[in-house]
Design a protein that fits this description.
Order of helices and strands: HHHEEHEEEEEEEHHHHHHEEH
Shape: elongated
Helix content: 40-55%
Number of helices: 11
Radius of gyration: 28 Å
Distance between the termini: 28 Å
Largest sheet: 4 strands, antiparallel
């Protein structure tokens, strides 16, 4: 069983025995109950239009009452009669605390001692860099475990691309850990060119802690592989010109071929020399933080 299902079963004191693969008879009664619900509830409501969840639940409850009071031919008793005679007296009371749904996933700690969950980064003790951890997230909290031991807990944030960092997770005195330092990242970017190095330096300087900019800086450097040094260097220069100090800006510029003399935007090719005003507008659109792009909705 996955962790979420296991937690739900433990909360209600239930024992879950998974059915075997390709053995439908292991859960014949469950499948029959699904068929009955489809015929007596879903089929009855299929042509109705609901405008709220409460309205839908009320309609389902009405159908359920009819179904539970209906006598079954093979036992000549209703489901409600069987429940009261056989099950009700042996049921356990419901837990006093409400069940909290939690989503689990695995995540590797990045070199900036943060893991990424739902497009947001959360810190863990810096000693766990490169380690694989388990993440448990509810609607309000994010917990991180290493070998079944909780190593970090944060209030959940839905800010895309943001950071939640605890000071106690940082190296003492902000000293650089392992072999990664801001100077090393900047020096690495100089292999592409001075514009790229300047942009990396800007990215690191905009963060509360330079380590928070490592992933963006390394992403910028890795753009050399698909696009080449010359294009990355030129795009970095354009980013510096318009004050868009971000990896995503450069990535989108390269993706849309807006770094060279011939540019394409929304399927319409144009020349920088022929239409410089339109080109500047396009660059401004890419740098606008409130415009998220189609990738945001995937």
């Amino acid at each position: 069983m996955n962790e979420t299902y296991q937690e739900c079963a433990a909360h209600y004191g239930a024992c879950v025995i998974p059915a075997r693969a390709r053995k439908p008879k292991d859960k014949a009664k469950v499948e029959a109950a699904v068929l009955v619900a489809q015929r007596w509830i879903l089929a009855r409501l299929r042509d109705r239009l609901f405008t709220s969840l409460s309205e839908m639940n009320e309609a389902i409850m009405g159908c359920l009452e009819i179904l539970n009071h209906r006598k079954m031919r093979h036992v000549n008793k209703s489901r409600l009669e069987l429940y009261e005679a056989l099950e009700k007296s042996v049921l356990k009371p419901l837990p006093t605390e409400q069940y909290v749904f939690a989503e689990w996933k695995k995540a590797t700690v990045n070199i900036d001692y943060h893991i990424t969950f739902d497009h947001h980064r959360y810190s863990v003790p810096y000693q766990l860099v490169h380690e694989l951890c388990d993440v448990r997230a509810t609607a309000t909290t994010v917990e991180i475990f290493r070998k079944m031991k909780r190593v970090a807990s944060h209030r959940r944030s839905h800010k895309r691309g943001g950071y939640t960092t605890l000071k106690e997770h940082m190296p003492k005195g902000h000293r650089e850990y392992a072999e990664w330092t801001p100077e090393r990242v900047i020096q690495w970017s100089k292999q592409i060119g001075s514009n790229t190095a300047a942009l990396v330096e800007k990215i690191l300087s905009t963060k509360v802690h330079p380590q928070q900019g490592y992933m963006a800086a390394l992403g910028l450097i890795r753009l050399e592989r698909p696009y080449g040094k010359e294009r990355v260097e030129k795009a970095s220069g354009r980013a510096l010109e318009v004050g868009a100090h971000s990896y995503q800006f450069v990535k989108q510029m390269l993706k849309n071929n807006m770094d060279g003399a011939s540019r394409k935007f929304d399927g319409a090719a144009m020349s920088e020399e022929k239409d410089p005003i339109t080109n500047e507008v396009q660059l401004a659109l890419l740098s606008a933080e409130n415009l998220r792009g189609s990738g945001y909705y995937h």
